[in-house]
Design brief:
Shape of chain B: globular
Order of helices and strands of chain A: HHHHEHEEHEEHEE
Largest sheet of chain A: 5 strands, mixed
Radius of gyration of chain B: 20 Å
Number of helices of chain B: 9
Largest interface: A-B, 37 and 40 residues
Strand content of chain A: 5-15%
Strand content of chain B: under 5%
Distance between the termini of chain A: 40 Å
Number of strands of chain A: 7
Oligomer: heterodimer
Strand order of the largest sheet of chain A: 2-4-5-7-6
Largest sheet of chain B: none
Structural class of chain B: mainly alpha
Chain lengths: 374, 309
């Protein structure tokens, strides 16, 4: 309720008292007789009643005119006092929306005029600070973008350049393994096999690192995606063909998303492959895919009953090369979830997870309902 | 410049007619009830006629200036300009109604105790009602266009509940006054003329309902204007339109006051005594003068802002 409405309501409430008084006179108006009076002298009844009624007429008309005038004066008062205040409030509203060029009109030389002047001085300072801040933010963003670009270029070239010597190591160790196997004893063969395993593992790491760094440069091409169909198709591709375990996959109907289909495919692939991987030690596996609709976003999730994790280390999960399990327990490079986090972040969404050791984990990601911020 | 003199010409012409009608009018038999001599009546008429004529000049000055302002604005499609244009047309209707009522009132005093008197009274009463209704309707349409226009959608909608509440209270008293007036349809006393010379049903349909509608429109216009003004971003526009708003408030309350006085009936007005009666008449004339003075003042402020640009 605005200040003006409050003023008017207070005024109306105050007016009720004289109005009710006036109403009392009005309802009793013109009905006077001498029935309730004691006759003390022989006077013309009509004459007395007439004078009383004339007096009531005067009171009634005077009160009515008084109320009319008071109402008018109040309206003048309310509008002249509140007009400049509501004006300053309207300017404040526009400033809140980011229009820093607006200034309050200085309409009088009184306290409200001083308030408007002070408000404008404050806005000048605020605009100056905002301008400087924007300049600084712009400069910092530019610097960050440059260093980010350098970092991406560096990680890309490092990964790319590492591949050539690695391929040579792998190739030559393969030659050694295949062509000179007879010349090696058991220990020599074990060492060669270890070299090959390590180079292949490093190759996987480099591949993941390359795809992670490529994500930074990739532009988002948004389109409408049927998330239910996509998740189902990816699970069918990833599920082990000849598994002996009892794998129960449940998927509920999910809302469509507006995002880059290639990147979202990668997200589902990483999350579902993780779910399959971390449940492989269980005989009865349960993987559930679903969603919840929130005010501004849609949250999708993948829940499993696998190895789970200790919530103490939840902060590390989405970092590059961060692993909570040894490669012997569960293979992998530790880049998958970092890729998921980066893709979702690029779409303006969030990722988070909940888990318990040996009880399973649930990975959530949200996507904005409408066009995402790139 | 020519238009301005046309307005002044009209004001001079009607003032001359009004003064002539007022000062050469035959003696009113009901004046004897107040115990006034012919000279005293003449003096009273003079003290009422002068501020009344001044009001017309304020009105003509305000309307000519407002027309000039609206005509000189480059962007005629601007919502504020369109609103002020509707105000100019609407207030012109209200002012014409006021002037015509005064002239017909002057003419009526020549026909007291004739068969023409009731007819002239009926015409006069309708002149009180319909030009104002048309005027406020035009202004309200301008305000409604402003409300619905896209670029002004940020403006708050005025509190129509408060508007309706105020009008209801005033209307209740007004209706009470009309229907407790014993001489509203006819009068048995030859010195007290009837107020309306109409049956109750016609009083209700053709007087009461249009009057209450006019007040409702007036309050709605004023409340919406009050909501719009704080969003104006030019000092002169803010000041000019605020003054016009004050003028509209005063004109609305003048209408309430005059209708209330009329509804009392001549008999009751005589009964309250000359002092209070004169006080009420002066209040009415002054209030009307204030209304048109603020209109002129506001229009002048707007025009000055145009010259300063």
């Amino acid at each position: 309720m605005g200040i003006r409405t409050k003023f008017l309501i207070i005024f109306l409430l105050i007016s009720i008292v004289p109005l009710l008084t006036l109403s009392y006179f009005s309802f009793d108006y013109g009905r006077n007789t001498l029935e309730e009076w004691g006759h003390v002298a022989r006077i013309n009844e009509e004459e007395i009643v007439q004078s009383i009624n004339d007096l009531r007429d005067i009171i009634f008309i005077s009160s009515f005119i008084f109320i009319i005038l008071i109402t008018l004066v109040t309206l003048f008062f309310v509008y002249s006092i509140t007009g400049p205040i509501v004006h300053i409030a309207s300017i404040a509203g526009q400033i809140r929306k980011g229009n820093f060029s607006k200034r309050a009109l200085v309409l009088s030389a009184d306290e409200i005029g001083e308030l408007a002047k002070g408000f404008n001085i404050m806005l000048d300072s605020l605009q100056e600070v905002h301008k400087n801040l924007e300049k600084k933010v712009h400069e910092r963003t530019r610097q960050l973008e440059a260093s980010n670009k350098d970092l991406e270029a560096f990680s890309y070239s490092v990964s790319h350049d590492l591949r050539a010597p690695l391929r040579a190591i792998d190739g030559f160790s393969q030659i050694l393994e295949e062509d000179y196997a007879a010349k090696f004893d058991h220990e020599g063969k074990r060492v060669i096999a270890t070299i090959r395993n390590s180079t292949q593992q490093m190759g996987t790491l480099i591949d993941d690192l390359l795809s992670f760094s490529r994500l930074g440069r990739k532009a988002i091409k948004s389109e409408t995606i049927d998330m239910t169909e996509l998740a189902k198709a990816i699970f069918d591709e990833l599920k082990p063909a000849n598994s002996k375990r009892n794998m129960q996959f449940t998927i509920s109907k999910m809302p469509k998303a507006y995002a880059d289909s290639m990147l979202i495919r990668q997200v589902w692939a990483n999350l579902l492959s993780n779910a399959i991987k971390f449940t492989n030690k269980k005989e009865n596996t349960s993987i559930t895919v679903g969603s919840t609709v929130q005010k501004e976003s849609i949250v999708y999730y993948v829940k499993d009953n696998g190895a789970g994790f200790n919530m103490k280390y939840v902060g590390k999960l989405f970092g590059v090369f961060q692993r909570l399990h040894s490669p012997q327990e569960f293979e992998g490079s530790g880049v998958g979830l970092a890729i998921v986090a980066r893709i979702i972040s690029k779409h303006g969404g969030n990722v988070w997870t909940k888990g318990k050791v040996d009880k399973g984990a649930t990975f959530y990601f949200s996507l904005p309902k409408r066009k995402p911020i790139s | 410049m020519k238009k301005k003199w046309l307005y002044y010409g009209i004001a001079i012409l009607v003032s001359t007619i009004y003064l002539s009608l007022s000062f050469f009018t035959p003696q009113n038999p009901s004046a004897s009830r107040l115990g006034l001599s012919q000279e005293q009546i003449f003096l009273l008429r003079f003290t009422i006629a002068i501020p009344y004529i001044a009001t017309w000049f304020f009105a003509m000055y305000g309307l000519s200036t407002l027309e000039k302002y609206v005509g000189s604005v480059r962007n005629k499609n601007d919502t504020i300009t369109q609103l002020l244009h509707s105000f100019w047309v609407g207030l012109l209707w209200v002012a014409i109604g006021t002037i015509l009522v005064a002239l017909i009132g002057g003419i009526r005093s020549y026909f007291i105790s004739t068969t023409m008197y009731p007819l002239i009274t009926i015409i006069m009463n309708y002149l009180y009602v319909f030009p104002s209704l048309v005027g406020f309707f035009i202004m309200h349409r301008g305000v409604s266009d402003l409300r619905s226009s896209q670029d002004l959608s940020v403006y708050k909608q005025s509190n129509s509940l408060i508007n309706t509440f105020i009008v209801l209270i005033i209307s209740a008293f007004y209706v009470f006054l009309i229907f407790t007036n014993p001489t509203r349809q006819f009068s048995t006393d030859p010195t007290i003329p009837a107020t309306y010379y109409l049956p109750d049903i016609l009083i209700a349909i053709t007087i009461v309902i249009p009057i209450i509608t006019t007040w409702w429109l007036g309050f709605s216009i004023a409340f919406t204007m009050g909501d719009l003004i704080p969003y104006l971003t030019r000092t002169e526009l803010f000041r000019g339109i605020t003054r016009i708003l004050y003028g509209i408030w005063a004109i609305i309350f003048t209408s309430i006051l005059i209708q209330s006085l009329l509804s009392l009936g001549t008999g009751k007005l005589y009964a309250i005594g000359l002092g209070l009666l004169l006080f009420l008449i002066y209040i009415f004339v002054i209030l009307q003068g204030i209304g048109y003075f603020f209109l002129a003042f506001g229009a002048n402020t707007l025009l000055k802002s145009m010259k300063g640009r």
